[in-house]
Design a protein that fits this description.
about 80 residues; alpha/beta; four-stranded mixed sheet; two-stranded antiparallel sheet; 2 helices; 6 strands; globular
Length: about 80
């Protein structure tokens, strides 16, 4: 988890470039906001996704080397 502004942002770390993100989707269903982060071995990207129950959320996927820049990246997206 990453505290950011008035939110507690879930951070999922994946070894590979793919994964199902089940726990992240479960957290997003219960969260009062719509922002999540994945740290992985792929390229930086921002995706608009839906949980199985239909809640929309934005997933920011970051390569490992950008972890130290998470807050700066979040600031730019607001």
């Amino acid at each position: 988890m990453l505290p950011y502004e008035d939110k507690l942002i879930p951070v999922e770390v994946k070894y590979g470039a793919s994964g199902r993100l089940r726990s992240l989707h479960m957290f997003m269903d219960a969260a009062s906001h719509n922002l999540a982060i994945r740290v992985y071995s792929g390229a930086i990207k921002v995706e608009d996704l839906r949980t199985q129950s239909g809640k929309s959320f934005r997933l920011i996927s970051l390569p490992f080397y950008l972890v130290s820049q998470v807050e700066k990246i979040l600031d730019r997206l607001d």
